[in-house]
Design brief:
single chain; alpha/beta; Rossmann fold; four-stranded mixed β-sheet; three-stranded antiparallel β-sheet; 6 helices; 22% helix; 17% strand; globular
Length: 244
Amino acid sequence: MASTSIHNILLAGKSSLTEFRGIAFVGGFSYADALDSAKGWAASIRFNQPLIQQFQDFYHRPDTFSLGVCNGCQLMALLGWVPGSDIGGSLGLGGDMSQPRFIHNESGRFECRFTSVSIGNSPAIMFKGMEGSTLGVWSAHGEGRAFFPDENVLATVVKSNLAPVRYCDDANNITETYPFNPNGSPLGIAALCSPDGRHLAMMPHPERCFMMWQYPWYPKEWQVEKSGPSPWLRMFQNAREWCL
């Protein structure tokens, strides 16, 4: 289910999240990107009691998964879906200042570029079999810096491998250095996932480069067809296989 359908379907009561196993909280200036890091989007869910109850029930169902990209990543953090209520924050309730979230880039500018990320070991179901990869990916955001008000939460995230994607430099080293790290996220953190791996929020856009023709550059040693899929397609295949 695409998140842009929330207002038309869920708010109108025409459907329920009980009918779905997956949610994609999309990016690309969702909810106009005019209310500060998806706060307006989050508020439309959090302050509607029937709706927030649906989202909480969906989150806890063991047969569901979710993916948030860019604005959707911001939303999942504000809802407390990543890294999860057991790690930091209060699921969906807001008001917990320890909840990690995504704030303005250190550069103070909207940053759009093809950057490199490293995929590490994590419980994320969508990255199964992709561990150890270093891949190029499109990044386009003005508020993508991972912010951890509570250092203990950051330490737990790192120790539990709940930051599966990190920005890296040309030598494949995880970095906080601009412009390799476009927003200044600590430890190069570009994504967060829940402890059970079902819920994943990432700032870069894998959906914008799941085909090789969407790549502006890739290593010469890659033996791939320009018209074929890129390594990022594996994410979406993993989600389908997990559902099956």
